[in-house]
Hints:
Blueprint: H1 2-32, H2 40-50, H3 53-87, E1 111-114, E2 119-121, H4 122-127, E3 134-139, H5 145-158, E4 164-169, H6 178-186, E5 197-200, H7 204-210, E6 220-224, E7 230-235, H8 240-254
Parallel strand pairs: 3-4, 4-5
Antiparallel strand pairs: 1-2, 1-5, 3-6, 6-7
Amino acid sequence: MFGRLATAARAAGGAKRLSVQLTTRAAARHCLTPLRPSNTRSLSMWTKWFGSKEEKEKLVEQNKIRKEQLVQKYRDEFQDMREFKKNKGKRGIAPNALNKVGSASAFPTICGISTSGKQVNAADVIATSSTQPTLVLSCCRDVARPMLEEYRKAFKAAYPSSAVYQIVILEGFHRHLKNMVAKAFAQDLDAADKDNVIVVTEQTEAAKNALEMFSSMTAYAYLVDSQNRIRWMAHGQPTAGELESLASLPKQLMKGD
């Protein structure tokens, strides 16, 4: 009996020494390994318990900023949802005239993945697509697809040979579904426009700001001239007047206005 107890005690002691060795090795590994997303949490815990006063203060400040950003993100999302429920994200009616050339901004540089899986720059692709006016549609959520379709159908009915592009900006978990999303949006396009869906998963905030996308829930439409300038823009559920403008304003661009 005593022999079995002694054996168990030696085994327990060995396990304890092994545990200490593994803990020491893990500590050394955390100290030497460069900061990566996979071990950020471990490093944060290490700093919390064993870091210097300055490191702990810095960690507290980083956690505070991260929390504030997360809270603001959810506030913005709830605000967008309330606005979408109320009026489909519509904040105003688009003008029935083109922006003047002097005040029109160039289509911004936005990089993403096309339907065929190619890395593309939206500005470059749109600039080389055609000498005719081009319609660019953008959104962040699938709920905006019916609105995009209304803009697209009105434009294509008047200008069947002009190109239509769709820029889909994905954030959070949705970024991992980029290939599926690209194919889903391409289903609504004509055969000539099947590869004109561009999915953006990097630098999404910069892309939204560049396209003046104030809400993640609604749809946006941009009429781009042959010089790659945005000459008209609309958002939200299109009105009858906006669809009429989308059908008539490209004629002015084709005349050189």
